[in-house]
Description:
The structure holds two protein chains of two kinds. Chain A is mainly beta. In chain A, about 0% of the residues lie in helices and about 55% in strands. Chain A contains no helices and eleven strands. Chain A has strands spanning about 5, 10-15, 20-25, 30-35, 45-50, 55, 65, 75-80, 85-95, 105, 110-114. In chain A, strands 2, 4, 5, 6, 9, 10 and 11 form a seven-stranded mixed sheet that branches. A four-stranded antiparallel sheet of chain A has the order 1-3-8-7, with no helix packed on it. The mean pLDDT of chain A is about 95. Chain B is an all-beta fold. Helices cover about 0% and strands about 50% of the residues of chain B. Chain B has strands at about 5, 10-15, 20, 25, 30-40, 45-50, 55-60, 60-65, 75, 85-95, 100-105, 105-110. In chain B, the strands form three sheets. In chain B, strands 2, 5, 6, 10, 11 and 12 form a six-stranded mixed sheet that branches. In chain B, strands 3-9-8-7 form a four-stranded antiparallel sheet, with no helix packed on it. The termini of chain B are far apart. At the A-B interface, β5, β9 and β10 of A face β5 and β6 of B.
Amino acid sequence: xxxxxxxxxxxxxxxxxxxxxxxxxxxxxxxxxxxxxxxxxxxxxxxxxxxxxxxxxxxxxxxxxxxxxxxxxxxxxxxxxxxxxxxxxxxxxxxxxxxxxxxxxxxxxxxxxx
Amino acid sequence: xxxxxxxxxxxxxxxxxxxxxxxxxxxxxxxxxxxxxxxxxxxxxxxxxxxxxxxxxxxxxxxxxxxxxxxxxxxxxxxxxxxxxxxxxxxxxxxxxxxxxxxxxxxxxxxxx
Lengths: 114, 113
């Protein structure tokens, strides 16, 4: 049981390049989330999904797109990377059903945009 | 909307000192409350949680009590260790908004030997 995994762990992009971050979970969770973490700003929600084939915007969605084609995977795409997207990205998943179900986090992806 | 407020860090303590990290929340209903810990270079992991008023969550010597009357969920530990150095996040989840999880800004704790 690997929990939540993220690939890649590190990536350096040039401004304007595109990339996709992959999140996978093996806990059969319905909800999945993408956050970014910047120094002194805590966690900010980018997008989330409440089930396969559904996505919704979070607090800071601009410049990102997501897809949830399979229940276990949640992809975060950057179409044209900007230096402001330099950050650590965390994926999380959660079982539905009750407010007391906690989120499970992946180890993070450190992205630098030059 | 819902929100979580935590004490400003960083907090620096000597080993074996008593720790308190304050957390207060604003919610429209009856949320569940959580403390997460993030060790350097890692993702967040659940430390403890409480699902209703007066519940006490505990784990690894840490404790927090759900206080509805003061809308608080303060984290405490009687004797901290160097290995407790990390960032601590308070969070809440509301029943009617199951997909929503609201995190506080985090409090960095450094424990010196």
